[in-house]
Structures are given as structure tokens and as C-alpha cells.
Please model this.
Amino acid sequence: MINKEIIEKKEWDYDTLISSIGTVLEKARKYVYSQINQILVKTYWNIGKQIIEYEQKGKEKAEYGSKLLDNLSKDLKLRYGKGFSRSNIIYMRLFYIKYSKSETLSHQLSWSHYFELLKVEDDLERSFYEKQCIKENWSVRELKRQKNSTLFERIALSKDKKGVLELAKKGLLIEKATDAVKDPYVLEFLGIPEDYKYSEKELEQRIIDNLQKFLLELGRGFTFVSRQFRMTLGNRHYYVDLVFYHRILKCFVLIDLKIDEVTHSDIGQMNMYINYFKKEETAKGDNEPIGIILTKEKDRVVVEYALGGISNKLFVSKYKLYLPTKEELEKEVKKLL
Model:
């Protein structure tokens, strides 16, 4: 009689073999994809370099209206096939202009990343998005979303001139609570029309349904913990809408959602939630929790007085259901500089 345990062990060993082979294949595919991307980036950089060197020898200036770029596109497509549209040729040339030192190129970014980055005209802004792409491992789609949501301008407005320059040079460094909080947050991905009447419950549900995008908007380091987290005090139950944990700051982040103008009592309630988490939920090695009231409207004077004297890390930030005007934000950032 065959031992059932031996059969199960053989099956387990075979399944493990299949999984192991799969892991090896995935690693190999990722490596090959990475190598192809690096080669493609370097190739396009070299093409851009040759175009610029051709110009510098006085042959022809490759202005955007010049026939040089038209002719290059046409002849390269005829000889080497796709990939040499006029748009691509323009960006290859621009690629070398903006990244004239090849050692500044990152092996973590694909040509598609650089193509998107080159659309950003301002050097400070482009540098910021490049650093964040590398730090947070953004896909091209995520990069597009962050650009469209004017992330650089929104963060820059909370800093002084030195802070903006550091932001462009190093990306966003998460070292303290204020580094992890934005104002405003942009929640256009929820798909809520401006004139639509919605409840706080529906707002919360839409965030949960789009949690991956919400985490991207929150920024680096946030991990989801719970929704409607219950706290019991004096035989009464209280609920904080959303709870996250920040891996870098090593602390809980509590978020309460408000669809109307925030009041002093809302701030007092969040302060109580923070105090509860300090006493009941933080573990050894955790830092003090952060509270964020995410509101559609806020009176800055009321908020200033309500927060006065509160020692906890408590913030009141607005959210927008549509993308802010980039031009207006750019003007404000330029004032700082």
C-alpha cells in the first residue's frame, strides 16, 4: 500500500519546482527588459548627440521648423523602420540637450519615462519628477498622473526658496510630519462631478474603491491599515474614517473626511483620536501619530485659532475633485523663487 504522506510530499515538491522555475523566469524577463531599456535610452541619447554635433559643425541648425528633422525622420524610417517619427527625433535631440552627461542618466528609467520628463519645460520641475520617479518607482502612467496633478507646485508652495531648490535637487525627503502632508490633495480620480451632492460615507467608499490611486496621491511611505477604526471611550464608540501607517516616519496617520467646512469641534475630535492612538495603539519604536482632517472647505482663521495650543501633529488640508490650474500654481512658485 502506497503511503499517502509520500504522495503528498512528491506533489508538494513538484509544485515547489514549478514555482521555483517561474521565479527564475520572472527574474530573467525583468533583467532582459531592464537591459533593453538601458540600451534604448543610451541609443537615443547617442542619436541626439550626433544630431547636435552635426549642427555644431555648421551643417544645418535643427530648429523645430527645419527640414533636417523632417529629412532625418523620413530617411531613418525608410532604412530602419518604426521608432523614428518626427516627434521622436525632436525628443532625442532634446534628450541630449537636457542630459548632456550620460552618467546622469538613470538605469531605472525607461525611454518612455524620459519622453514624459522632457515635456516638462522647467528644469527644476523636471528634476523633481525625475528624482521622485526613481525614489518611488513610478510607472509611466503614475508619472503622467503626478505631472497632471501639479504635484511639484503643490509641494513647492509649502516651502521657502531654499526648500524648493532642495526639492528639485533631491526630490521630496520625508523627514518630518510636514513633509508627508499636502494642501491641497487632488482626488480627481474619484470621478465625482463638482456639482454632485455626495455624503462623507460615499466619499470614503470611493476612496476605498480607488485605494491604489489614493495611496499614490498620499505619497511615499503610506500603507493602508483600516477604515472606520473603532475607539471606545466611556462606553461610547468613536470611529476614525481611515487609518494608515507611515513606514518612513514610523507612525500612524489618521484621516477624517469632511464634505463641509471644518469646525473647531472637528479639530477637537481629531485631537482626541490622536491622543487615543498615542495611549492605546502605538507600539514600542513608533513615533507619535499624525492626524489629517481632509475637508472640502476651511476658514484659515478658524483653523489657526482652533489649532492654537495643540501640541499634537494635527493638520487641516483641503481636497479638490478636479485638477488645479497649473498656470496659477506656477505663478505662485515663481514668486517664491
Remarks:
- Residues 4-107 form one domain.
- The chain has two domains: 4-107, 178-324.
- The chain has 13 helices and six strands.
